[in-house]
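Fig. S4 source data, part A: sequence.
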Amino acid sequence: MNLLKQSLSLLLSCCIVLVTAPGGLAAQADQSAAPPPVQAAPQTPEQLQQLVAPIALYPDALVAQILAAATYPDQVVEADRWLQQHPDLKGEQLGKEVDKQPWDPSVKALVEFPSVLGNMDKNLSWTSSLGDAYVNQQQDVMNAVQVMRDRAEKAGNLKSTSQEKVSNQGKTIVIEPADPEVVYVPEYDPWLIYGAPIGIWPGWYSYPGLFIGGPGIAFGFGFGIGFFGGFGWGWHHWGYDWHHHDVMFDHHTYISHSRVFVNRNNFRGGGFHGANGFHGGGARGFAGGQHGFATSHNQVGTHSSAFSGFNHGGVARGFSARGQSSFGGGFHGGGGFHGGGGRR
């Protein structure tokens, strides 16, 4: 009887192995045959032109600050909220308090232009898409700025005024303040200023003081930058090297150390390694590292923008279309925000 029981047990075991083995082998085969994760497609020239349309006609140094700061959307939101909480700070006192903050120099510099900073906060999906594009398609972004300036010039909407100086250096259009100590931010409708209408960015919020109806350009109050001249992040530390398509900071190529975006152009087995100081591995400063932004907007086209498609690099998908609803629950301090743009 014992021998019979042992024989039956052995027979049943063999049957179980034979029945389950094909499924296990098939599952292994399916896993090995699975294609690698698809990386986000680059944005087309037309998409990039739509992306830079709201800022392409700003002075060169301001465009440089915006592109650099867009790689730190978390700090942009924090800086704008901080500025709203300190309305009494003005001039040099404001500069001293900003200098104490742990933000990147580009974000600190934008405090000089509260309407620009506020626009980046309220249109956070656009800001995030701009930062993503700057990380992964820097030269294409620079080219898009020049294309849009050329279009505005041909439409008769970009010319020198008492507020800013427009000059042509070969095929490059340069925009500078007419007075080196006073900066005017042009006000215009980015979807009409370039001649043929451009598709409006999905969910776009027309920030007061930056946009006017119609195809022309207007100028409001100038921003005096002398109060911030003594700080290492002030206006005169920023510029453009159009020849090399580089943002310049303190006379050197600007290097962002943001971890919000990954450079998909530099992928090596298992991780992203950014060429310009971007390294995969998660966006520090976001609660839990995975819930930073609420999904609400998908950019038209085949590319993924603004934190989408980065789940393999450690950055959460999605973002907020409006600054008011972003980061649900707020910021968590400590080592969250890492300032200090670099130089090469």
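Fig. S4 source data, part B ends here. Residues 24-39, 267-344 have pLDDT under 50 and may be disordered.
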